[in-house]
Amino acid sequence: MSAGAASVRRAPTKSVWLLLISLLLSLALHQAYLTRAYPDAVYMDSLRLLSQLSEWQRGQLSSLEFWNQGQHRGLVFQAALLANVEWFSLDPLLANRMTGFAILALSGWLGFAASGAGGKEKATPLRLSLACLIPLLLFSWAGFELLTLDLGWPLWGKNLLVVAYFALHACSLRRALSGEGVAPGRLVLLTVTGVCLVLLIAMGWSYAFVGAVLGVQMLVFAIGPASSRRRIWSAWPPAAGLIVALLVYVAIGSNSGTSAGMSLAQTVSSLLRALALLPDALGSTWIGLETVRALGISRDWLWVFGMASLLLAGFGVLGRWRRGLASNSLLPLYLLAYGVLTAFSICVARGGTDPAAVGASRYYMDFVLFQVGMLWLLAEQADESPAGHGRLAAATYVLACVLVLAGQLLTYRQEWKAAPYRKEAFAAMNRALLAGVPDAAAAQLLQAPLEDARLGAKVMRERYLGAFVSLRPARSCDPAGIRFLSGWHQPEPGGVWMSGKARLLIPACACAFEAKAYVPSDFGKRRLRLSDPFQPAFVHIDLPAGATTGIRLPGGSSSRAVEINIDRIVIPARDLAGGRDVRELGAFWSQSAFACGVGAGGGTR
């Protein structure tokens, strides 16, 4: 093997190792930040979704209504919340730690692709530097809001799936351009996954997602080689599927009553204002907005950085066009399109009320993809341009990386200092939830409308979720352990009928056992006699007709079977005029539970 061949084989290995070090370092910093800020509170949209999840599980909210979340129609939030509730009793800190692994997967994918390792593109020092910078950018604490929100990991997971689709679609386009053709199976996969992304996962980002795919495909079709245009048509079925899915998405949303019409003049004014704010939004990826405020830096610098991003991206796209759109991976073009379309939509939606809001940290995760695409094209331009132009492009790339790195390091430093204060804020949020969200100030702290915050806190209290999990009774007090042994009829909605004599198994629990017994008005009054091994004598309880009577037995350190006798039974078919029921009915039992203090006790069955 020649020395040159050995060098070619070693370069990708070196790239992979350096990328791996960058990934692990970024993940470690992320976990350290979470330990310091300790985001263990449920807040913002999670509270509204939690109350809706409870309604959906009880059958009080249809699946379509559960899917139709206004501007963010889909099921990715709901699925993530359901999994956290059912498996981890709604542990927000665990969810936030999982966010790091979603970012890790996306950073690794983009870093490996940008480095050129393992592909047809050449791995160079500039490409390697970009690969190592990508994890630092994606893990940046400039996006702290979604690093400390329990719904952050499905959002980053959404980005991972979107970028995966971009990569697969880009590969198909390049195959079509080269004349290799696109396999029917791949076209079907792209079509089906695209529809699922639009309707279930991408939510309000569906417009930018579809726009990016169509934009790149139309660009390749419009300025690509004329001889390849016929071949590109073979890659249009997935695009058609995206268009149909987006039309369905919009049509269902237009019937939800959430949209408001605007005049033509208002629309034009809104679009122009959004264009003017676009640099502010993209500039927030160079240095976090919170850092700009904390350090007293003029917000005009965000506009300057944003304009630099747009100009450098344009420079990179122009260079790619001259070399051939498909000369290298098309993925950075998708990242540019998705990032700028997302930023523009945020400027349209938020710019009218608060111009500074367009750079909020919650939007960083999407805007940063534009920055990655821009730096990717600059590195590529520097590597593949002629000597003179290449040196200029390399200097431009290095300067951009130095400025981005400086801004990010300032952001990391500022957020590390702010983390203890954020920890205090999360602790205050949990106190507000434990108090039932007493007032509007508590709701404002939780960043949720008062009604949504109270309903979410109520669900958490009743089901011992999140901040209430430490108040849950011992597992032995689970009402699911209560067993109706002999002498009971089939359960009915709301409870179960006992016959003249029945046995009830009560599991070990220090809390008192409680239940309700109801006797219909036409049954007549009667009397229960309970034989409880933990009681020195029989317990007698009178049950008046037409009323519900509470039954309470003390808790115990072991399970026991309680025998229940009733002095009268009724067979409706025999004893009541018009009755058809031939069962022996004593009393109707309901709400069997353990009274363990908080909220609804240990639950009911």
TrEMBL record:
**Keywords linked to the UniProt accession:** Membrane, Transmembrane, Transmembrane helix
The organism's place on the tree of life at top rank: Bacteria
Tell whether Transmembrane is among the UniProt keywords: yes
Q: Where are the transmembrane segments?
A: 94-114, 126-144, 185-202, 233-252, 301-321, 333-351, 363-379, 391-412
Q: Does the keyword Protease apply?
A: no
**What protein name does the entry list?**
YfhO family protein
The organism of origin for this protein:
Thermomonas brevis
